[in-house]
Amino acid sequence: MNRLIVVERPERWPFQIPGVEVVSAREYLTAARFADGPRATVLNFCRSYAKNTTGYYVSLLAAARGHRPLPSVTTVQGLSVDSVVRVAADDLGDLVQTSLEPLKSDDFELSVYFGRNLAKRYARLSRALYGHFPVPYLRARFRRDADGAWQLSGVRAISASDVPEAHHDFVIETTSRFFRHGRDGSPKRKDWRYDLAILWSEDDPQAPSNAGAIKKLVKAAERIGIKVDVIEPDDFGRLEIYDALFIRETTHIGHHTHRFALRAEAAGLVVVDDPESIVRCTNKVYQAELFDRHGISAPETLVVHDGNRDTVADVLGLPCVLKDPTGAFSSGVTKAETQEELSAALDQLLEDSELVIAQEWTPSAFDWRVGILEGRPLFAARYHMARGHWQIVRQGAPKSWRYGRVEAVPVDEVPAQVLDLALRAAGLIGDGLYGVDLKELDDGRVVVTEVNDNPNLDSGEEDRVIGDALYDTVMDFFARRLEARGTRR
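Request: output the structure for the sequence above.
Response:
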């Protein structure tokens, strides 16, 4: 991939960045070698990014050509929108206070170069600012308000001429590091077809992939020419340098996983889990309505609110199961055996959500989990209940959770009714990667309990039947989606 720095006057560019070509904005916009040539990472250092200016068109046409512009048009437009800055100010509020507390002045400016500042004490704040505003070089202004609290008052992109001479060596190092962009700083192989980011944290006890699975995903990607970086929440500002994003953290709305998905989709990346799937899979009220409308067999379900809470026991009987609409990993799920337990659980759940889910009690020795990718079965497993418990997870302190046994099953041995229902349910959500949970009941019914985004892909568990083919299939999916978009080196 070519590496370009685009400026109005190349002869005035002050930095020597190894392996990077400095070109004029006019040449980039008009020369056939850029319009028709190989893909490129494009750092846009034009003086203005305002609509219809040269800088605006550099980022706009770079995106159209399948290049990677930084900043993107979306980012530069956001710099001038007060509401965008206010959202960032709200998100960064506590970090701003702790970072700037030692200062005695009432005004402060922070220069950020690819998410870094010379002073290590501003490292976290610099990364966070770059996460909100992925601009190569930016300057943030802070002021104390009447109560003495620091407030983010403005953010602007700066050009190379705005960089103090004392910062030059640091800027050269950070810019060179950006172009290397591997987490270990090592040069990239030149024959990678695509670059994929996997969002994953080894410290997350609920991560949907263990370390062994992440290693196998990386190897599967490399076998077909995809370079993988395992990234963390602090890497939010680097998303636009990738072709695709694979989220391997438990997703939530209003969480960094959802923000990653939204930004990745806006930047044109192939993304799993996509934002729409996250919304649809993280709300059980949505799925209850969806399944009912499309005739998907599910446990008898009541959407509960303050107006009908007194009917739950009459409609469903006791015991019954109550669910927080946004709960994950069996959290927010309560079994109510008596009217007193039912009332207490509803009091708590309805305090946090206008609507909650109540379902009939459907005991079983195991749940079926069918992994679906792009409308086709990927794997199947029986998730057995945790010992002495009615769920597959027995919760305690996060690192002491007890899980039931995972029994991988060949897809062709899954009962036809289970497989068909899983495919139909997942198809209502989208065409990405899903884990459908189902039960076979004593009365002969097969029911879907929910469709999950970011299903578990753990080494030694879901892959026990098909081995590395599971990871190869996932990476083939990314490659085909990228090829279909015309993404190319």
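The radius of gyration is 26 Å.
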